[in-house]
Amino acid sequence: MAKKVETIGVLTSGGDAPGMNAAIRAVVRKALSQGLKVKGISQGYKGLLNEEIEDLHPWSVSDIISKGGTILYTARCAEFRTEEGQDRGAEICRKHGIDGLVVIGGDGSFNGAKQLAARGINTIGVPGTIDLDIACTDYTIGFDTAVNTAMEAIDKVRDTSTSHERCSIIEVMGRNAGYIALWCGIANGAEDILLPERYDYDEQKLINNIINNRKRGKKHHIIINAEGIGHSTSMARRIEAATGVETRATILGHLQRGGSPTCRDRVYASMMGAYAADLLAEGKSNRVVGFKNGEYVDFDIAEALDMQKEIPDYMVRVSKAMSS
């Protein structure tokens, strides 16, 4: 039988992502519209263990849909990875009357949600990560904003790279996934894209490509390097020494996490947050919300975590053809 839920909590965990506030807003207002009470938990699982919990009302989430970051803040929590921490987290939920919980974050956050579900707290995960690396969903909250932020920055770097006839290595975020790098590589017309899933660490290929392009009269060379490969500064020194072409590294870093979310991130986050509230109202637990084949769906958390996601081979082939 489905467990009746009367009070739900909502938290954001792991790295922040533009659109998290839109998801929080949707959870709160959709749950309240169904007669549920809502409590906000600050600082993710760390805040749960510290009992940083307060009631949320419709006005608590006014005017946040356009804001980057998360009004509930976020933090890593080593203690919650232990059985003792998970037991205490479930007890704190019960102490505050929280019988359902929406966790907005990535796969590590969903592992925590799975543990709480096993301890009797209904949990629903909402995929909030700029990395686009959660296999059960075609879209994750924050990716669109992050990739547009990176694209605009790379356009600016290209301008100065062309002016100085340089090679520019631009490192983008993504943890161990190459989706931001691949999308930016195509959108920015990069000459080379280095993806953790595909890179063979043969720098001589890059060097040969730069030299051959110079012989053909190309004045600049853009390399998009994924965070999962990294070492952009030392790579730039080696390439300059080997080619004689002035080479600079630019690491875009955390600017990709911030900023007002795009329309797409606001809408997807709102739909996913509302869907999560609906699932809890129905008594569902241990589920992850996803967007698959044009529809909002949900999966068992364990099943979702076991799924594998691969870089689309056709996008890689297109990116190589376009850079020729």
From TrEMBL:
The keyword Nucleotide-binding applies. The active site is at 131 (proton acceptor). Allosterically activated by ADP and other diphosphonucleosides, and allosterically inhibited by phosphoenolpyruvate. ADP binds at residues 25-29, 158, 189-191, 216, 218-220. One of its GO terms (cellular component) is 6-phosphofructokinase complex. Pfam families: PFK. Mg(2+) binds at residue 107. One of its GO terms (biological process) is fructose 1,6-bisphosphate metabolic process. ATP binds at residues 15, 76-77, 106-109. One of its GO terms (molecular function) is 6-phosphofructokinase activity. It is found in: Cytoplasm. Residues 8-280 form the Phosphofructokinase domain. Belongs to the phosphofructokinase type A (PFKA) family. ATP-dependent PFK group I subfamily. Prokaryotic clade 'B1' sub-subfamily. Homotetramer. Catalyzes the phosphorylation of D-fructose 6-phosphate to fructose 1,6-bisphosphate by ATP, the first committing step of glycolysis. This is ATP-dependent 6-phosphofructokinase. It comes from Candidatus Choladousia intestinavium.
